[in-house]
Specification:
mainly alpha; four-stranded mixed sheet; 4 helices; rod-shaped
């Protein structure tokens, strides 16, 4: 095997390792996204439950205000009844009776609203209790799910470390100048920087390379680039079969 062929093989190996690192990096990104999505889902559910709790507290406050108003009305009726025992004229008596009747009517409306609130409060309290339980279950589910994701992410990061070490081991054996060419090509092209030529066609851009270049490529005497896409190209022996 010629020295150039050995160098090309090293470049191919480096590229293969880099592709594995890239795929692992993408997987890590997906896992991180899943973790963030679970966090966001918890925040959203917590906000919904908090809103329902706030609405429930608002109803309880309104009920307490009605309850306070009812007590005030009851106190006013009691005072008016005391005044009845002290009146001396029929006109005053009738006036106080009318006042008591108006207070009772107002209080009856208040009590009706209190009953409506009691029915709503009972249903709302049950709903909130169920939502709180569901939220706790969901938080626990997310916690366990994130633990699994974290373990997967840790394995991927360890794999990346191992791949980087493997890449370093390969790279140190390669000619620094050729590694430099590889890095330069990688900055200029997307995807694979080292591609084979099959039947005089560059597998990077899928265009025919000149016949002379194809013949030169088979000499394996130096690194050559595709004249179209500028990737590093190499010839496989099966093309000669």
């Amino acid at each position: 095997m010629s020295n150039i062929q050995e160098q090309i093989n090293m470049l191919i190996d480096v590229q293969a390792v880099e592709m594995e690192i890239l795929q692992a990096g993408r997987h890590i990104h997906v896992l991180s996204g899943e973790t963030a999505a679970l966090d966001q889902a918890v925040v959203e559910r917590e906000a919904l439950v908090a809103a329902e709790k706030k609405a429930l507290e608002g109803m309880k406050k309104s009920y307490r205000e009605l309850e306070s108003e009812s007590k005030i009305n009851a106190g006013m009726i009691a005072k008016s009844n005391q005044k009845l025992r002290a009146v001396k004229t029929n006109k005053e008596y009738q006036s106080i009776l009318k006042e008591i009747d108006e207070i009772r009517k107002r209080n009856s409306a208040v009590e009706d609203r209190m009953l409506e609130y009691l029915e709503t409060l009972e249903s709302a309290e049950q709903t909130v209790a169920e939502k709180v339980t569901e939220l706790q279950d969901f938080i626990e589910y997310c916690r366990k799910k994130q633990e699994t994701i974290a373990a997967d992410e840790q394995r991927e990061r360890q794999a990346v470390e191992a791949l980087n070490a493997k890449k370093t081991r390969i790279s140190v054996k390669a000619d620094p100048k050729i590694i430099g060419i590889l890095e330069d090509v990688k900055r200029k092209v997307r995807g694979m920087a080292v591609v084979p030529v099959q039947q005089a066609i560059c597998m990077g851009c899928h265009l025919n390379i000149p016949a002379q270049l194809f013949n030169e490529l088979q000499r394996l005497d130096e690194i050559r680039l595709c004249p179209h896409c500028h990737r590093i190209i190499y010839w496989k022996e099966k093309d000669n079969e």
